[in-house]
User: Fold this.
Amino acid sequence: MIQISNELKNKLNTSTSIKIKNKIVVGTTEYDSSIIKTYPKLSHKNSSVFGGFPSKTCSFEIYNHNNNIDFENKEIKLYKGIEVSGSIEWILQGIFIPRAKDIETNITSKTISFSNVQDKTQLFDVSYKSDLSWYNNVTHTGLEIIQEICTKLSIDLSSNTFNLSSYSFKQPNFAENITCREVISRFAEIAGSIAFINREGKLEIKAPTNTSSTIERSRYIKLTKENEVSFNTLVLGKDGINDDIVYPETIATDRVEYKILDNPFVDLYREDMIEDISANIIGKSYIPFTLNNFVDGFCFDLNDVISVKDRNGNALNLTILNYETANRISANVSAETMGTMTTDYNLSGSSKNELWKVKLNVDHNNQSITALAKRTTDNETNISQLKITSENITSRVQTTEDNISDLENANETLSGRINDKVNKDELNEIINTVKTTILEQTSESFTMWFEETGLQGTLDTMQNELDDATENSNTLKEYIHFEGAEITLGRSDSQTKLVIKNDRISFMTGDTESAYISENTLYITDSTILNKMQIGHWETKEDENGNLNVKWIGDNS
Assistant:
């Protein structure tokens, strides 16, 4: 809220006759109502209670009698004035910068129309490039992150103190093409605030603020409202993925949640940050409403809280999220009803003895995607993980039971020395312990299988062939070759072989190692998955829109 005189406040509440003036200032030149053909119309709208960085726009028409007015790319200060005791009290509405697309010149009528001219918010619609160092786990405060953007764009901050301004952030998970405007918008979201360029052209990050202003019934035509919404639950999630993090973990029966999706500031650290973020969300409330033809005195801004008296004299605290000029003297203000946000609490938190949870992390900083499927019971935790980087795919399946890792036991088996001579029974024991072949490669596809107890696939087929080999020693020699401490499995004339060494199991294509397993991890140089991938009871598949989906498919065995 911009400050106005007490005399003007009294006049707005009591007077039925209010005279309005308009003027614009460009540089040192002032243009008054004699040149302004239509009264300026303003619009400033935000679609969410928290977050957002909306542009304030204005539209108006002026006379250009001498064809000497050129406002393109120049800063225009727009003022509205109200007559008080014979003089005009001018109220700055904002600073706007018209671009060529906003301007239409009519040579015949000698007028210029300006349509939806944006304020300085438009300057933030550029790619975000930061010089902040994040190496060695260095952190930066919210103020440092926001201030750097403002400095680069030559925009002042209205204040150095706002929600999370002193909070130390780990490196946010920014996408490569994110804009400065989006960075600030998503910061405002976790700060329980709205970002906007204020009337003086400064960036303001503003939480709901009480103005101590009471609006009498006589100052508006119509008020409609809904029930108050008070948030008692915060959810941090990912769009399309059921891996929501919920605070508090004790789920209220009357929960009213606010859900934040894909926020890069918390994306990789949701569990660590959710309690701190919740302080800006939980306990906050708002009333969806519309106030039509409100004589506002041109002094209110977004996130201003005003006290409005209804027809019964009851005072309602209303937060302005949308502002739009209604006519020369009044405006329409509102707060929209937010869409329903729901969370599958069977897949969130830890309120059940058994929990299946899928977590998909897209790390833009390190150019990697990690999919994690986790099942937790009273005494067992099963984890399946797939990590895709720009260089390789790393897969890991791990089962922990009563604090004893079966994989550690398998690792000991694999790490032990393999004797130069291994009989059929010993080889079968290794195969059963490792349960390892997970790939089938053809000219058209590459397939991987994952199971809770290990990695299992084509070695089962090879094992069956080894069973037949006891009846035919020539067949055994054809498929198994010993050289030092290495065992090679595969037909002697095949380009594709499996080589078992002391420290790794290698998949060979000719003389090239296309993949290997070492210390319970599969490494693949290159991989193309054309359709889908199954991890235990979970399936990862690209949908028709190009999105990566992870879903539970059950036990198909």
Remarks:
- Residues 340-358, 399-404, 417-421, 434-459 have pLDDT under 50 and may be disordered.
- The radius of gyration is 33 Å.
